[in-house]
Amino acid sequence: MSSASSSRPPNAADQANRRRAAEVTLRLSEFDVPPIHDCLVVGKRAAVGPEGARRMVEAVSPGQYELIRVEHPDAEAVVVRKSLLRLLPEDKLVPMLLDEFSRVGNDRLAFKVQVQVVLQVTRELEL
Amino acid sequence: MRTVGECMQTPVVTISPDRSVEDAARRMELAGLSCLPVVESGQLVGVLTVRGILACHPNRLVADAMSSPAITIDPNASVWEARRLFLRHLVEELVVVEGPTVLGTLSRFRVETEIARYIDPLTELPRPDLLKEQAKALLHAGHELAVIFLDLDSFGMVNKLYGHILGDAVIKQAAGLLRSATDPAWDVLGRYGGDEFVIVTRRSAREARALARHLVERLSSELKAGDSVVTVSAGVAGGRRHHARDGIAPGRTLDDLMNLASLRSTQAKKEGRPVVGETTVTQRSS
User: Is the peptide bond before A73 cis (omega within 30 degrees of 0)?
Assistant: First the structure.
């Protein structure tokens, strides 16, 4: 692109030499529903707050998530998929999430966490 | 004493909890307000303060930055009652409501500034209006009240003989002695006028008379203007319990107590007695 450096007004010849164009790139991907996988740990100064996160997941996945407010130096809440809480009790899951959040996060972040739970069951049957 | 309605901040600008903190900050700045009541479906659900905004990312919802529930107060309440609410709830802003209607907001700073008008600058003691508010709160709590009215004798002569600067120093000294001889848990001390002090006390009439005698003795032995000793006379009123009951106006009851105690101190001065007590008080309906 050219730019006029003189102070005189542009004449017809100058106008003809000018050309402006824009290059547009599109990237398409599927929107994740819900936008968080299993858990979201909300930092105290994150761009999304506990209530904002709760309303977001409630809007796209009604009744599937639970908001748990926590006492922690950097985090103020954890949003957890309810089905996960049927596999892992809250008092086991939440401290583990906060412990990991303390290692890698800070109060300005909201971390989404994928949790895989594999239950190992051994049962003895009498024949 | 001025009411909350006379001191509150208006106009009322409310905000919904699903707006952003950034939007709320802009509205507050444009309207010159220190807080916004948060209203959802016609219900007051919280209050957003400057501190709440500063602590939050601007992208957050107001719901994540507000203080909830909002502490509310009636517009007819006194600023002293407002101050008690601030101390009890440790908040910065009160929302003034009449039923479901939000009328305005009141900041702690505004209340403290207003209360300062009722403090005597020389002695830093409450003036009568503030003293009555403090005493009314005790009456509402069902405490027995007595009033001790203390009057420095011939104080006009002290000003004439030694000048007003020394006169003021004597008043300050008297206030200091009274402060050290009373117990804030039981007694509310104030300056009534030029050379007059009032103590509203939860003590019984008998204990109040004993305290009055002790105060008169102490002041009369320690209070000096130049080479002269300044003596003190006291009157005491009160005795029965004076609960705030239906049809009984606490303010009028207090006025009666103060008036009687004042008349008794005049009587004490005339008769040359240190303390004259009065134990019969009529409760006055409004």
Answer: no
Checking if the pLDDT of A8 tops 80, the result is no
* Helices vs strands, H then E, count in chain A: 4, 4
**What is the structure's pLDDT at B286?**
44
Work out the minimum CA distance from B214 to partner chain A, whole angstroms.
53
Tell me whether residues B64 and A45 touch, CB distance under 8 A. Answer: no
Contact residues on chain B for A50, CB-CB shorter than 8 A: 64
pLDDT at B247 over 90: no
Q: How far apart are CA B94 and CA B96, in angstroms?
A: 6
CB contacts of A47 in chain B (<8 Å) are 57, 59-60
Percent of chain A with pLDDT over 70: 90
| Angle made by CA atoms B86, B91, B96, in degrees to the nearest 5 | 70
Residues 79-118 (A) with a CB less than 8 A from some CB of B? 108
* Section B221-250 average pLDDT: 71
